[in-house]
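Chain A, query sequence.
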Amino acid sequence: MIKFYYQFFKKNYKVKIQQLITDITKLLNLEDINICDDFTMDLELKYKCNLTETQWNRLNQLYFTLEAKKDILPTILKKFINKNKIDRKFTFVDTFAGCGGLSLGMEYAGFNPVFVNEIEPKFLESYYFNRELPVENYFCDDIKKLVLNYKLYKHYFNNIDLLIGGPPCQGFSMANRQPIIDDPRNELYKYYLELLHLIQPKFFVMENVKGMMNKSDEIKNDFLNKVGNNYSIEVVLLNAKDYNIPQNRERVFVIGSRVESIQASNIVSDILSKKVSKNVLQDALEGLPCLQPKRVKNASKLENNDIGFKIKKFVYPETEYMNFINKETSFYLFNHINRYNNDRDIEIFSRLPQGENSLHSSIADIMPYANRNHMFKDKYFKLDENKVSKTITSHMKHDCNMYIHPRESRGLSPREAARIQTFPDDFVFMGSNNNWYAQIGNAVPVKLSEVIGRSIFKYLGETNE
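Chain A, predicted structure.
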């Protein structure tokens, strides 16, 4: 992680290293692994930067300990070291990667990342931490710069099987009459197409908002004009709830195939054949510890058994949902911690019945926006545990008033939101509490991505036999 912070967090390097020291120390203590008293200063001197002597010595001591005892380290501590694995079989490139929900589903399907693009280092931090891909294989900047400087990076893109990504596109409104490709708000979409043209992968997947479906013919033409008729292309609207994911989340996927014998329509048909609806919100929440409301303001470092922890040793009770989202057993609970709420909001959370919003009579006397109810009917919403959740969005970084826990007087924790998005329990979200919500809300549900990935991989495997 030191190399990652040195490369992408120059401005707040000292803060990141201090958090690194805190997290590693805590995990070593939780695992009862003694920190080496006798150690050598093995880290390259350039990584000292603006650290104090105390921080620099402690950092060397901790990393010496991790290397000296790596044979007995649990998986979570190994994630701080040894980022040097590249599997060049069934490769994919991820653009607009975020923390990597779309990527993770593709990895579960059998693909391996070889190059990752994301402009926000605070999102890429989680992607990097949870994988073994070397820091050199990350491009943390605007995709436009990647395209314009493609010759410097083209050696990463030899014989790529799959290109994925979800470019933010604000110009996909039904009311927008101008061509999508010409709308300056859709510049990122344009450069995704440019990169697709340059890489020429066997397959591609682009994810975006539901509004894209209204211009599906135009989008197919954009792709064909850029990459040529050697691709078959389909545009399909998928809802996560139709794939056993306890969330009503509609997204458009553009899927393309350059393999002559494999039509994109076959891939889409295979995806649509995998529909199953069983899980509801309660399934995602089952087994996680109850939390009390957090009433202490401006206390971002506060952790305890009442409001939760960033990292805690934990034995998960076995449930069907736990087995559904997890590939490995986690012995830790990550990112399950409450945010601050004032007394009025906590009272509203307590009174509202499940499935009700700001207009409900139970909170009429304390509703702060009563004179504008027509505008703020969804300001508060208590989720119904017997139904699928509403769409998890990045708005949760501001507040969770629209995502009130069905049985507890608080908003959903980041871990609960992550479970609804079908992230595995051992996936750690890095950065600040609010940033965790942003990463989770922006992600593609992992298990939906896996369904798409498996439908592609099934055919890709045939072409590689």
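The domain at 92-271+447-463 is CATH 3.40.50.150 (Rossmann fold). The longest strand covers residues 232-239.
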